[in-house]
Automatic annotation (TrEMBL):
Residues 22-165 form the Flavin reductase like domain. It holds the Pfam family Flavin_Reduct. GO terms for molecular function: FMN binding; oxidoreductase activity, acting on the CH-NH group of donors, NAD or NADP as acceptor. PANTHER family: FLAVOREDOXIN-RELATED-RELATED, HYPOTHETICAL CYTOSOLIC PROTEIN. It comes from the Bacteria. It comes from Selenihalanaerobacter shriftii. This is NADH-FMN oxidoreductase RutF, flavin reductase (DIM6/NTAB) family. Gene3D superfamilies: Electron Transport, Fmn-binding Protein, Chain A. Belongs to the flavoredoxin family. InterPro entries: Flavin_Rdtase-like_dom, Flavoredoxin, Split_barrel_FMN-bd.
Length: 167
């Protein structure tokens, strides 16, 4: 493990996010990961922040609503496309994604939620703010394009408490 500044690999993280990353959430004994393709890394409230979005219909939503942390694991290299596809199209309600995809976890360095082994870049985050989308304030074209089922996201702002590379 090599600790890195939260913004040292921001370009690579942003580019890789468009191909998918693993958002992992733990609540009590329940653990789930899902694929995300959207997110934002920035500096808010004097802290490095990673913002992720989860729709209410997702199994992960049930967990993250009870959690106070999450991790994001990003494969910077190729080789996890099938796992990302599976975790982005199958629900943790119906599948144990870890066994189905042979995903292994590594213990978090500063949080109890693990990261996904096989990924190179990891963010450990403590949730500091959440906000449900207000559809009335959303651009009409975005609403039409991204929310035809009106299944809006909740935004979770996590303070990045650890950022590191693994092999």
């Amino acid at each position: 493990m090599q600790k890195v500044a939260y913004d040292e690999y921001i370009k690579e993280a942003t580019e890789s996010l468009t191909k998918g990353a693993f958002l992992t959430v733990k609540s009590a004994d329940d653990l789930n990961t899902m694929t995300i393709g959207w997110g934002s890394i920035g500096y808010i409230w004097g802290k490095p922040i990673l913002m992720v979005m989860v729709r209410k219909s997702r199994y992960t939503f049930q967990l993250i609503e009870k959690a106070d942390e999450f991790t994001v694991s990003i494969p910077l290299n190729e080789g996890m496309e099938e796992e990302l596809k599976f975790c982005g199209t199958k629900s943790g309600r119906d599948y144990d994604k870890f066994s189905e995809c042979n995903l292994n976890t590594l213990a978090g360095q500063k949080v109890d939620t693990p990261v996904i082994s096989g990924c190179n870049l990891h963010y450990e985050c403590e949730i500091k703010f959440k906000q449900v989308m207000d559809a009335a304030k959303l651009d009409f074209d975005y609403d039409e394009e991204w929310y035809p089922k009106k299944d809006y996201h909740t935004f979770y702002f996590g303070e990045i408490v650890s950022c590191y590379l693994t092999e």
